[in-house]
Structure formats: structure tokens, C-alpha cells
């Protein structure tokens, strides 16, 4: 079978770095290659139509890889070359990943079997419009059931109207209440699950006609749970068991052991884990905790979780759980670690930070012929490079002082603001260990808000 001949297109500044990267990659992957250097400094300014007029690939070319910023209509290039044409990554240092040289997920990634119940806390205090708004957001983030969190005391007169409105909006609904009258009204209005049931309300649950969550009378000893389960099962009531997760410092490790014990005792039972006692009550960002807890659920066959997103550090827990359940499902099914599979859950730091290195930066500084500043974040410093200038410092204020001492051309208020903004992003990237690319948003996983580049996207002049 003949090898692919891949023709890589780039600009003058990236030529040397691209040649080094492609030479190693060609040997690892097994392809022949050529590199077409276009008569332009910055590859990001090229367009497919502009490239098509200047493209001269060897006749044996089978694939053409354009810079990732060429993400428009590729037909002009296809019209002048019979080879397949594609846009590669925006950063040439990502070419190994592009060619599958770093771990990745299979075609079946994305499946899951854990159900998310998302609680709306203190629902009786909220207007119906606010409840519906929260429910829409929770469902959009991945919630399968909207859990109506009620309050101790008298039954909420509006509970039935609330459930009916949510059902009319297309939501599945559960009710979190110990008041039998409140639960009865909610169930008649369409609630399909009740949280929670123990010996205190077990008899009432027999008449509700819906699924319930069974919990122990005493969490630490599981006392009363077996009797509640037996009574519900004898009455034909569908149930899920929740041994109750407790916060760190209040019996967390022991409570995890109880989930193992209940799975051993009831190997075929449906189970639920309420994870908010950890995510809401721990001074730490919730994403990592949600992945860990859902990993435990996946391995133990706990097919539903209850979460909240009240405190600020857990404000995106539902979305995190939706991503996490796909990640852990794939890992457990394939027997692989959940690594390099879900970059959207890597929020604070990046999976990998690429660097050109001092030699490449020095070469770039020597070859740049224009006054436009290139900003890099490498080696613990922010670098500013243009024709005749290469400044670097770990401190943004000292760096800007260097720049002003160099008496730069064309540094008006607008340009100074732009450089200040980019330097601030670069400092943030260095501080947290993130990848910095000029004119692009830092990668905050699923929280990323894309930036619209200031660059002139109309393309280069001939």
C-alpha cells in the first residue's frame, strides 16, 4: 500500500518550526511530505482563495493540510488540486494530536447510564416564573429530572401548580419533602419520584403510586433501611436506595463504605447518591469532585445522582456531572483511565502547555520584518517580539516599561490597550499553567467564552 504524501502549507515565520515538527511526525506516523511556504509572514492571515492562487504541491500529493485559521470555504483550493484538502490545528505544535499521536477517545464516546436529578432549593420561596427559568437552565445543562426542594413546616399550597407547570414545560419532576400532604399533591400533579422515605413515612408511600428513594433511619448504622425496603417491596413500590453521603469531617469515608455495603447487600437494587453534601460543603472547585463521585457511582452501578448548584464554586455542577457521566462511563466500559478523553472538564489548567523554546523565539525575532507585536508566554516570562525588538519579563509592568523605553512606533492608546489586554492574558496563562495563543481566549474547558479576534480576516494582499 502506497504512503500518503502530505503537503503542509505555512507562512515564512512558522517554516522552521513546522519543518522540525513534521519531520518527527512523518517518521512516527509513516507518511511522505512537502512544505509549501507562502509569500507571507503570518500564516493566520491566509485565506483559501489566496492560497489557491499560489499553491504548487508536488504531483504525488494525496493530502493538503492548511493552517487551522483557514477555516472558511476550502473549495478554491480543491478546485486547483485533486488531493484532499483539510484545515489542520491552529497551532502547529498540536499536529501530533491532530495525527492521533496522543491518546484519544473512540467513536462510542458520549454514552452514559447515570441519571441526574437537579434540585431547585427552597422552591416555595421562589416565583413560578423563577422556578421555570431555573428548570430550563438545569435541563439545558443536562438534568434528567427537576427536583423540587420543599421546606419544613406546613405544606406548600403552590406545589401542585409548580409540578404541573414544569410538566407542561416538558420536564420530569421529583419532589423532595417529608410532608405527606405536600407529597400527595405533587404526585397527583405529575411528580414521578419522592425523596425520601424511611420508617417515618413508609406507610404513606405505599399509597403514592410512584417511585421513592429509601434511606436509613440512622445513617451511621443503616438502621431501619432493610425494614423500609422490605415494606416498600412487599407493597410493589418501586424504589432507589440512598445510604446518604456525608461531608468530609462528618463521616465521609464511612459513608462511602455504606454505598459499597448496600451494593453488596442488594446487588440488583437501583441506587442514588446525593453528592451535594460534598460539592456544596467543601472549599474546592466542584468539577474534580463531581468526576470522582460519578466514577464511584459508575463502578458501583449507582444509576442516579442528586446534585445542587447553590454555592458559587459549585454553580455549574449539573453541566460538570453531565460531562463527567460520559467520561466515567467510557472509562469503565473500556477499562481505561479517564485521561485525555474530556478536555472540557480541565478548567483551571490546560492538559498540556506547548512552548517554542528559546531558540525558536530568537529565530522568530531575527526573522520578523514588520512592526506588529507577537506576544508569547514561555519560560515563566511574557515575550514581546517585532522587527528589531525582543523584550521579555515575568512582570507585566516591567515589560511595559521596557517597551516604552524602546520608544516604540505606532503605540497609540488603542494599541497600548490591546497589548495590555494580551499581556494580562499571558500572565494569567503563566500563573495557572495554561496555553496562551495571541488573539484567542484562554481555554477554560466548557466555561470558555470565545473571543472574536481583532485581526483583519479579509486575508492578505498579494
CATH superfamily of the largest domain, by name, is Dihydropteroate synthase-like
**CATH C-level class of the largest domain:** Alpha Beta
Helical content, roughly?
Answer: 25-40%
> Within the largest sheet, what's the order of strands?
5-6-7-8-9-10-11-12
What is the global morphology?
Answer: elongated
Low-confidence stretches: 456-462
The count of helical stretches stands at 16
Question: How confident is the prediction overall: mean pLDDT?
Answer: 92
The radius of gyration is 29 Å
**What is the number of independent domains?**
3
DSSP strand content: 15-25%
**CATH A-level architecture of the largest domain:** Alpha-Beta Barrel
Which structural category fits the helices and strands?
A: alpha/beta
Report on the biggest sheet: 8 strands, parallel, barrel
Give a written overview of the molecule.
This protein has 462 residues and is α/β, with parallel strands linked by helices. The protein has helices at 15-29, 48-52, 75-80, 95-98, 128-141, 159-168, 180-189, 202-205, 225-234, 252-265, 276-279, 286-300, 317-334, 358-367, 396-405, 413-432, and strands spanning 5-10, 32-37, 63-66, 84-87, 115-120, 145-149, 172-176, 193-197, 211-214, 239-241, 270-274, 304-307, 374-378, 381-386, 389-393. Strand 1 (5-10), helix 1 (15-29) and strand 2 form a beta-alpha-beta unit.
Amino acid at each position: 500500500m502506497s504512503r500518503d504524501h502530505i503537503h503542509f502549507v505555512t507562512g515564512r515565520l512558522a517554516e522552521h518550526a513546522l519543518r522540525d515538527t513534521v519531520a518527527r511526525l512523518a517518521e512516527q506516523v509513516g507518511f511522505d511530505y512537502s512544505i509549501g511556504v507562502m509569500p507571507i509572514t503570518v500564516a493566520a492571515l491566509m485565506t483559501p482563495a489566496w492560497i489557491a492562487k499560489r499553491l504548487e504541491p508536488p504531483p504525488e500529493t494525496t493530502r493538503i493540510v492548511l493552517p487551522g485559521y483557514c477555516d472558511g470555504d476550502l473549495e478554491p483550493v480543491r478546485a486547483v488540486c485533486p488531493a484532499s484538502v483539510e484545515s489542520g490545528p491552529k497551532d502547529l505544535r498540536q499536529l501530533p494530536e491532530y495525527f492521533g499521536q496522543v491518546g484519544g477517545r473512540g467513536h462510542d464516546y458520549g454514552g452514559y447510564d447515570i441519571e441526574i436529578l437537579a434540585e431547585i432549593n427552597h422552591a416555595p420561596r421562589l416565583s413560578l416564573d423563577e422556578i421555570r427559568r431555573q428548570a430550563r437552565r438545569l435541563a439545558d445543562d443536562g438534568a434528567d429530572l427537576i427536583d423540587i426542594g420543599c421546606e419544613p413546616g406546613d405544606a406548600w399550597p403552590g406545589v401542585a401548580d409548580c409540578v404541573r407547570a414544569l410538566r407542561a414545560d416538558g420536564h420530569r419532576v421529583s419532589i423532595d419533602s417529608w410532608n405527606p400532604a405536600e407529597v400527595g399533591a405533587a404526585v397527583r400533579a405529575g411528580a414521578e419520584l419522592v425523596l425520601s422515605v424511611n420508617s417515618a413515612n413508609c406507610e404513606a408511600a405505599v399509597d403514592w403510586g410512584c417511585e421513592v428513594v429509601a434511606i436509613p433511619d440512622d445513617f451511621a448504622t443503616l438502621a431501619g433501611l432493610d425494614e423500609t425496603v422490605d415494606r416498600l417491596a412487599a407493597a410493589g413500590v418501586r424504589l432507589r436506595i440512598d445510604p446518604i453521603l456525608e461531608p468530609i469531617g462528618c463521616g465521609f469515608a464511612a459513608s462511602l463504605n455504606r454505598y459499597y455495603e448496600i451494593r453488596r447487600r442488594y446487588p440488583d437494587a437501583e441506587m442514588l447518591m446525593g453528592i451535594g453534601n460534598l460539592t456544596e460543603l467543601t472549599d474546592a472547585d466542584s468539577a474534580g469532585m463531581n468526576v470522582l463521585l460519578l466514577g464511584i457511582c459508575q463502578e458501583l452501578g449507582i444509576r442516579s445522582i442528586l446534585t445542587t448548584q447553590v454555592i458559587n464554586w459549585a454553580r455549574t455542577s449539573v453541566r460538570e456531572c453531565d460531562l463527567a457521566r460520559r467520561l466515567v462511563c467510557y472509562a469503565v466500559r473500556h477499562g481505561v483511565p479517564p485521561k485525555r478523553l474530556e478536555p472540557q472538564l480541565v478548567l483551571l489548567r490546560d492538559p498540556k502547555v506547548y512552548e517554542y523554546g528559546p531558540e525558536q523565539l530568537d529565530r522568530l525575532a531575527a526573522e520578523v520584518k514588520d512592526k506588529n507585536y507577537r506576544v508569547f508566554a514561555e519560560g515563566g516570562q511574557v515575550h514581546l517580539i517585532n522587527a528589531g525588538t525582543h523584550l521579555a519579563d515575568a512582570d507585566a509592568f516591567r515589560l511595559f516599561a521596557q517597551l516604552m523605553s524602546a520608544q516604540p512606533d505606532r503605540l497609540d492608546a488603542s494599541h497600548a490597550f490591546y497589548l495590555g489586554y494580551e499581556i494580562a492574558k499571558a500572565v494569567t496563562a503563566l500563573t495557572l499553567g495554561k496555553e496562551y495563543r495571541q488573539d484567542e481566549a484562554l481555554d477554560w474547558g466548557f466555561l470558555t467564552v470565545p473571543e472574536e479576534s481583532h485581526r483583519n480576516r479579509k486575508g492578505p494582499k498579494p
